[in-house]
Predict the structure.
Amino acid sequence: MGILFGLLIGLLMGAGTFITFAAEDPPAPVTVQITPSPSPSPSLTPTPLPTVTPTPDPTPTPSVTPTRTPTPMKKPVITLAIIPSPTVTPTPFSSPKPTATAAPTVSYSKSTPFDALFSEFANKYGVDVNLLKKIADCESHFNPGVVSPNGLYAGMFQFAAGTWDKHRKAMGADPNPDLRFGARESIETAAYVISRWGAGSWPACSS
């Protein structure tokens, strides 16, 4: 009876339980050692990390700047008008003639053997007859053949040879210096010089 009870208890308690009974002894205290069944270790399955798919950056769409088409400017139309140049008729150039210095009116009443020549050439060249007489009297005392002491001046108006040559050529007359001794040629040449340049050639006798 005791053995059966022990077996029953053993079956109830499960494997690993040891029950000791003493045969035909009074029941002793029963020592029960319960070995817990090892709990199965849980199998840890690692949770896979989610795969992060990078989001691609959006491709920038280039902004299109509208191209401004310039409005073509109209080129000005230049019309060339050809203006004919006026025909210029050149004015004939004339050599300026020296202006004669107006000789002062001279009061001279002396009579000479050459009065007719003085009057003739004074009228021809428009000079004062008394001025002609005064210069001739001052230079030579009306002597057509006089020569200066230095021999450079001769005739009634004491012309130098070079001066005589220049004035006679300007008159279109014979420039021979010997004609200084002729009363006619000397008086006419003096009247011509006074009409063109005044009496400045005889400064000591004309004032």
